[in-house]
Amino acid sequence: VLLTNLVGAGEVDEDLQSETAEEAEKYGKLKQCIIKEEKGAPDDEAVRIFLLFDKVQEASKCYADMKGRYFAGRTVKAKFYDEERFARGDLERRA
User: Fold this and answer.
1) Residue of 30, 14, 36 whose CA lies nearest to 66
2) Hey, how many other C-beta atoms are within 10 angstroms of the C-beta on 12?
3) pLDDT (tens digit, 9 = 90+) per residue, 28-38?
């Protein structure tokens, strides 16, 4: 699952990864949480949070709950990310 617009550019702090992982674990076994900030991207897409779950059903629960959630004045965007791109480490935003 890829989350964007949870926080904006320059708002990533040392607690974001652990706090996001803790929240995501409510949906199931979280295998990985990666946060990538892209310079020059639009503010609502600058911070990309990737959540890898053990099972598709867990990812689906996370997606359904997080998509459109209102957090700190922002509406969170969620989508399923291509598993092959994730496995290759290709986490860059495509224009």
Assistant:
1) 30
2) 17
3) 999 999 999 99
